[in-house]
Amino acid sequence: MSLADGSVRTAYAKLARWLKEAPADLLNYRVEEAELLFRRIGITFAVYGDQQAQERLIPFDIIPRIITNDEWTRLSKGLEQRVDALNRYIADVYGRREILKAGIIPNDLVFQNAAFRPEMAGKSVPHDLWVHIAGIDIVRVDAETFYVLEDNARTPSGVSYMLENREVMIRLFPELFAQHRVAPVERYADELLATLRSLAPRSAPADPNVVLLTPGIYNSAYYEHSFLADKLGIELVEGRDLFVRDDVVYMRTTEGPQRVDVIYRRLDDEFLDPLVFRPDSALGVPGLISAYHAQNVTLTNAIGTGVADDKAIYSYMPEIIKFYLGEEPILKNVPTHRCREPEALAYVLDHLEELVVKEVHGSGGYGMLVGPHASKEQVELFRAKLKASPGGFIAQPTLALSTCPTYVNSGVAPRHVDLRPFVLTGSDGVRIVPGGLTRVAMKEGSLVVNSSQGGGTKDTWVLDE
Fold first, then answer.
1. CA distance linking residue 105 with residue 108, whole number of Å
2. SUPFAM superfamilies this protein is in (predicted)?
3. How many domains does the chain have?
């Protein structure tokens, strides 16, 4: 919110004035109101392995994060460039593999990647698009510089919180909205549905049938699945609701079988079809992959996109963008040490107390070491892990992440944030709703914003002026 000299950024001027004038009692009351609203709505997040709080609310911060229109324009261009490169890379590694032949990406990072699906080698997908919904995690380090922290190319979550956060803020702070021209996010559901329909296979009817496939009520993101199906006006289905006949997918209904053309699946690859992947999976649809290869149904995102979103491949994204697009990256990567390389490993082992070390296939803030905040025992544990399996880790410097004003027990205080914008890519172009999900580390000094690790969320305002 503030510049180095302590003055308030222009975009935050009205908010800063409002915060200065708002009595603490009012803010406390609004916090309680927000929590009550979220409980009534039923927004919960399941935490696997946490017996005390398997269903809980994600903490919500009532102070919005503000981004200017100029900043958003620059971010949007960078996001579009990055997702275009991701799509080309995935198509290439399952196709001609030119980037491997050129020696830019080591073969083993593709073929030994647990998310690589040999079943997709040589296969085409509808409209030659693989990543239809991307969640790109962004961090800011100064007034001008945004870094990409992570690419989520499988089934990025969190958009329901983006939409609900905005709805709650409009209800609780109408006076603040009256003072700002905030770009709307409400149209995301319409944009998503239009994207999904545009991806229907060419054999589909003019009005394609779209469904959302969920693993069921015990999944940690089930709330989001039901929320999105409702917002999109499509059926929420489980595997048992679908069947395949003559390489066409059908949904069981009270009026008989109904053809399904696009499946927005929130189910991991290995559970989709027991005839191809895990035979013990009761979550998927037998024969689904056969219908997919026959191009009679579109799966969103495509099977095998996980080959592009691990942290080792992330480190090559600048080279990937240059290789496919012939352009310099608009959004920078965080400088990354690949521990699989001996020289990098030696550096990381010598500087563990200064670095953030992450598992290549880790997610959710698990399996990582934040060196400056770690105990000696944790550092030594990771030293042993690195020596035993260096290829499983990358390391990055601890960035001076930007902070946003956040309402905590002690009042308004700075907390570290990141941003997850959602990029929709259909056969008719790219759609990016202004804003995204801002995640906030609620603990003082913490750099971990993941909800599974105690992080919260806040509304993201892109000023439409």
1. 9
2. Glutathione synthetase ATP-binding domain-like
3. 2
User: What pLDDT is recorded for position 365?
Assistant: 57
- CATH number of the CATH domain containing 348: 3.30.1490.270
Element housing 84 (H / E)? helix 69-93
**217 within domain boundaries:** no
- 458 shares its domain with 342: no
Closest CA to 107 of 293, 340, 265, 451: 340
Residue 105 lies in a domain: yes
User: Is the same domain home to 393 and 413?
Assistant: no
pLDDT of residue 138: 95
Q: Which two tokens stand for residue 358?
A: 């992450």
Cα distance from N-terminal residue to C-terminal residue, the chain: 18
Residue numbers of the chain with a pLDDT score lower than 70: 43-56, 362-366, 451-454
Q: Are strands 332-333 and 146-152 parallel, antiparallel or unpaired?
A: parallel
Which residues, in sequence order, are CB contacts of 395 under 8 Å at separation 6+?
A: 336, 337, 339, 344, 348, 355, 356, 357, 358
- 446 and 374 together in one domain: no
Q: Which residues touch 251 (CB under 8 Å, ≥6 apart)? A: 209, 211, 235, 237, 241, 242, 257, 258, 259, 260
pLDDT for residue 401? 81
Q: What single-letter amino acid sits at 28?
A: N
Q: What is the pLDDT of residue 245?
A: 97
* Interval 327-347: pLDDT, tens: 999 999 999 999 999 999 999
Strand ranges inside 308-452, DSSP E: 332-333, 337-338, 355-359, 368-370, 393-397, 403-408, 411-420, 422-426, 429-432, 437-440
